Amino acid sequence: xxEIKIISHKSPDTDAVCASIVFQNxxxxxxxxxxxxxxxxxxxxxxxxxxxxxxxEPETILGLEEWTKIALVxxxxxxxxxxxxxxxxxxxxxxxxxxxxxxxSWPVFIRTEQLWSTNSILYKMFKENWFEIxxxxxxxxxxxxVSDTLNFRSATTTREDVQIWKELNKIAKIEHLWxxxxxxxxxxxxxxxxxxxxxxxxxxxxxxxNWIKAWIWTLETTNPKFSLDKKTEILEWLxxxxxxxxxxxxxxxxxxxxxxxxxxxxxDWNETKVxxxxxxxxIENNLADLWKRLSRKKQIVPDLxxxxx
Length: 309
Fold this sequence. Notes:
alpha/beta, inorganic pyrophosphatase (n-terminal core)
C-alpha cells in the first residue's frame, strides 16, 4: 500500500499542522498508511501544543519522489503548497478556504466547509464515520480551533465552531482551560531569538489577484509592541522579499489579540495607494490602522481581490 504524505501550507500554523496529524489518525482508522510533513519551521504556539500533547513535530520535507500520493490540508492554492505539486498524485483535500486554482486530472476526495478551522471539518468527519477521538487528538483539534478563531474573536467564527470546541473539551478534559489558551497565545507572541526573516515568515500566504502577485502576512500577538518597535528592520526585509520574488503588492498586519486591533506595515507608494483606497485609512510612517480587521481570509483578502479584479 502506497504511503500518503499529508502536507500543510508553506507557512504552517497551528490549524494546519494539527490538521495534518489529525488527518493521519483519520486515515489510520480507515487502514490507510500516511505521514504528516511540514514545509517550514513551526511557530512557538504550535510547538507548545505538540509538546503539551507529547507529540513529535512532523518532519520538514521540501520535495518528494514523482507521483507520490499526497493529501492537502488547510490550503488548496498551488502557490501555498509544496513546490512542483503537479508531479504528485493528490488523493485528498480538506480545507476551509476558497477554492482558487485547484485542479487534478483524476477524481479526488474533497471536503471543504465554511467553518473557521480545518479541524472543525475533521471533527465532523470523525463523527460521521464513527471513528474514535482520543484525548490527544481532541486536544489538537481544540487547540487549532482556538488558534484559528483567535479564541472566538475572529469575525468568521461560526456557532458550529464554538459547539464543536465545547464537545472536544469533553474529551480533551483540559484543566484550567483558559490558562491553557493564554499560554498558547503567549507562546505565539514570544518572538525572542527569532530573526527578522523568521518573524515575518511566521504566517504569510501568497495570492494571485488577477495577475497581481501578492504576499500577505499576519502576526497574531499579545505583544504588538515587540514587532512595531522593529519597524525599520521589518520594512527592509519586506523590500528585499518584494524585490527577490518579483511581488506587486505586500502587506504585513500585526494583530493585537487582546485589544482586537490591526496595525499594518505599508511598504511604499503602491501599497499606500491600495490600502488607502480600500480601507479608507491614512498611512503614517509606513503604518496603517486597520481597526478590527483580524481576519486575513474574510476582512482583508476579499477586498484586495475585488480591488484588483
